[in-house]
Structures are given as C-alpha cells and as structure tokens.
Design a protein that fits this description.
Elements: E1 2-5, H1 25-32, H2 40-52, H3 56-76, E2 82-86, H4 96-103, E3 108-113, H5 116-120, E4 133-138, H6 144-151, E5 162-166, H7 175-187, E6 194-200, H8 206-219, H9 230-235, E7 241-242, E8 248-249, H10 258-261, E9 267-273
Length: 275
C-alpha cells in the first residue's frame, strides 16, 4: 500500500491549532452525519443548527452521495485518475479514494484539510489500493500556492486532475477571494481536468438557512459560514464547460433514483470541465 502523511508526529496538532472548546466545521459535519469524532462544542453547534434547519442531517448525507456519484462519473466516464480533494473532512463511508479506486485501482488521491483532528485520523484516508496512491496534506485552501506545491509531490499536474471542493467555499465569506481561489486552482491543472463544487444555498429554504448559518457562525472561531444563490455558485465555473445537468441541487445531479432526486438538501452542486 502506497501512502504518505504530510509532516509527521511533530505535526500532529496541525498548523492551525486545536481547541476542543470551539466548534470546527469538519467536526460539526461529522456530528450531522452521525459520527463520533466530535466534541461537546461541535455537538452544541450541531444541535442548534438542526433546530433551525431540521433537514441539515439529510443534506449532509446528500452531499456525501453527491461526492460518490461525481467521483464515480469522473473516474468511470471521464477517465480521471488523479483527485485533489480539498476540505476533506473526517473519514466516513465512500471516501474519494474508495470510490475512485473501486473504478480505477491506480487512481492517485490527495486529501487536504486544516483540522488537526482530521490529520490524526488521516491513516483511515490512506488505505489505498496497492496500485494507487493516497496522501494527506495539512493545509488551507486559501494558501493555494503552498497547497499546490505540496500536492505536486503526489499528483502530476501535466495530466488531468479532478479538483473536489465540496462544502468548503462557503467558508470563504469574501466572494472575490473565493472566486480567485477557484481560478488559481483551475489555472494549475491542464485541459481535461474537472472541478466539482457543492455550496450552501441562500435561496433554498432561505429563512431556515439564514437562521441555521447565523447559529453556526455563533460557534465557529472565524464565524465565516455564508450561503450563496445558485447564480453566484454557477460563477465559480466561469470558463469551464458545465457537465449536464449543470448547477442543480446536489440531490438532482445524476441521481440514482427519483427518491434520491426528491430528497431534502441545502446545497447547490455541479461539475465543470476545463477545455
């Protein structure tokens, strides 16, 4: 099994510090999914956001299903063999490498997150198929140049790469900064690469979502969670060819069934191809 962890024991706390008294998006998300890798602060934030928007747990599961469908599509129909998964979150079922390598065992995956607890669980993300490679980077999406430099130790940026940005851009509240971050990532990859995005919506159940986000921000250290409308989320794909059906509710992106398509979600999602 080929595997690599950025840093080593000296990095176990992560470069961004660790405070169990403050909620972190990755751990709140883990709580929504029914995981156990969270602390009291995360559970309090999770319960208060559920009270504001009861469908958030189903929406979190829908986001994971969207990830699995898009990775399966990219590996199976587009022939992508390299994935850069930014904002990985805590390990759960159907992680990117598991889906990609079930289709193409030689796939190479780099995971990126800035939560020290994710780093501590990184080995669960590194159970690569023997023919493939997985790596984990302790990095921030906003430090794009450093992230790309580190990822280049595992990925060949002269060949197509699938950039996975699931439920991460809504933690960059400045729209121009978020757009520049995506544009920088797109410039780093060649033609035939793809970008997958899911993003909190401000125009799906708007009143409930606004209250959910307000409560979430009361508990986050940076208080930086934002929702955006569909037309703004679509702007992140500027210059890319949108894969049908375009930017839609994540439940409606090539669903496996009508039941899945009709499920609740608070996220817009789409996949774009660099020509």
């Amino acid at each position: 099994m080929a595997e690599k962890v950025a840093g080593g024991p000296a990095d176990a706390r992560g470069r961004y510090g660790f405070d169990a008294r403050v909620a972190h998006p990755a751990r709140v998300y883990d709580y929504w999914l029914g995981g156990k890798d969270n602390f009291e602060a995360d559970r309090i934030a999770g319960e208060q956001t559920i009270a504001a928007y009861p469908a958030i747990r189903a929406s979190a599961r829908a986001n994971r299903a969207f990830l699995a469908r898009t990775v399966r599509y990219l590996a199976g129909q587009e022939g992508i063999r390299q994935f850069l998964d930014i904002g990985t979150g805590l390990p759960t079922a159907n992680n990117t490498h598991e889906v990609a390598q079930s289709v193409a065992p030689a796939s190479r995956i780099v995971y990126v997150d800035n939560d020290p607890l994710v780093l501590l669980h990184a080995r669960a993300l590194l159970t690569s198929h023997p023919e493939g490679v997985t790596a984990y980077l302790d990095a921030d999406v906003r430090d794009t140049d450093s992230l790309l430099e580190q990822a280049a130790a595992t990925l060949d940026f002269s060949q197509p790469v699938a950039i996975m940005l699931l439920a991460i851009l809504h933690y960059i509240p400045d729209l121009a900064e978020a757009q520049q971050t995506v544009a920088r990532l797109i410039r780093a990859v060649p033609s035939g690469s793809h970008v997958t995005i899911s993003h909190a919506a401000s125009d799906i159940s708007p009143a409930e979502m606004a209250e959910m986000i307000r409560r979430m921000n009361e508990h986050l250290a940076e208080g930086n969670h934002v929702g955006r409308p569909r037309e703004v989320v679509a702007q992140f794909f500027a210059g890319l060819e949108l894969v049908p059906p375009g930017v839609v509710k994540v439940t409606q992106w090539r669903p496996a069934s009508q039941t899945e398509a009709d499920g609740p979600t608070s996220l817009w999602g789409g996949v774009g191809r660099k020509a």
